[in-house]
Amino acid sequence: MATQQPNILLITTDQQRFDASGSAGPSFLRTPHYDGLRHEGIDFRAAYADCPICVPARVGIMTGRYVFGHQMPGNGATSGLPAMQRERTLPSLLRALGYQTAAIGKMHFTPQRARHGFDEMIIPDDYYRHMQRLGYGNLQPMHHGLGQNELYPTMATVPEALTLTSWTAEQCLEYIRVRRDPTAPFFLWCSFAKPHPPFDPPEPYYSMYRHSAIPEPVFGDWSEGEACPPAFARNREKQSFDLAPPEVIREARAAYYGTITQIDYNMGRVFAALQDLGLFNDTLIVYTSDHGEFLGDHHAGAKSFFHEPSAHVPFVVRLPQCWADRQHGTAVTSPATHADILPTLVTAAGGTPPPDVDGQDLIALARGQLGEPRRYLEAMAGSMSEPSHLSLTDGRWKYMYYPEGAVEQLFDLETDPHELRNLVGDPAYEDKWEELHRTLVQRHEARRSPFVTAGKLISLPLKHDTTRDRRNTSWPGYHTEMYDVDVRH
Prior knowledge:
Strand order of the largest sheet: 4-3-5-1-6-7-2-8
Mean pLDDT: 92
Number of helices: 13
Number of domains: 2
Shape: globular
CATH architecture of the largest domain: 3-Layer(aba) Sandwich
Low-confidence stretches: 477-489
Distance between the termini: 55 Å
Strand content: 5-15%
Largest sheet: 8 strands, mixed
Helix content: 25-40%
Order of helices and strands: EHEHHHEEHHEHHHEHEEHHEEEEHEE
């Protein structure tokens, strides 16, 4: 066990799918620093976002609660959310244990300056103001016109050293080398805003994978015609993801991989700073992403549903070298999620997590010390009155229920990792379907969920024909629309 409180570094990417990392990714993908973490750490290979959307995932990290507990199933204001009360968030709990806490990069809190317990926050708004001071008012990053949820790729409008990814790493370097108190342990959340669209890496990352054997999109038997769940079809068609040409999808994937490698190399700069100060080996490091990205799979883009491209994320915990029983180089196949980060880190820091957290200590899980490890992970998205899906997985089997139209899906991820075949209705899998369906109903009944009545999951009526409303709604304006600073003039 630890002899002293470790420094803690939490690294998150935005919209990185599991199969765009480590051994799960294509062989040509260059992620040496992530691979190093995986080889030295604990690789949680069945990690999922229980609500595959930006803000809910981040609230899960901050609170240790599932989406059903923190009650934030979509992007919205975090200020005033009861689960985000300042005194019980992850940074507040660590600060009470003597840690200095800092958040650098994309937090996605609302209002954006709400610190929710952090001692210090540096966010993308600070980056854009920095760019203005440098005289880049008329040549801002992402002034290429693409929005934040499009599949179309392009190249960054600034050199690599001036990108948000590089700036985020640079701010972490400054914190580690200059701004922190060297007499106290630190908790640093380094939050990269990529590979979230727009897919706009700078050179050399833009061209790095253009001539590689880019994987083709996959299409399930359920993603075509009338077999496609109405909620899923409407999401992709209103944003016109299903109309993106194959050539565009291929280029988008190449650019997507480029942004991931750029993050990895910049992550290496952060590791180098820790190494220079003799801190790297004994820092506890967690790496994950808030959710994934469909990237053309099943004719879809973006996220929010519980399919593998959207919900399955990389998740590695590397323990300090001075700890005994580090479990280094091991893989865990039990389901993990963002709510596990809080109890894992608070326990590692010598504290006791609040009794109402839903997450579990992943270090204890890897060591076989949990009395009752999680068997199933539940998921949802949408709203607390109209969920788009209610889902369940044990790491191998996945069950999804769409209230709109009462559509069901069942996948065996061991034999069908790309979810190409919906097993609902197949007599050979009727017992498994019944088991997972019953389990989901019972769990909602146990928490008195509004999503089950009279022993049945709720059913919602079909909405209007999406073809009448087809348009590209993925363009919300320049990437800075979410920030106060105006860089358009």
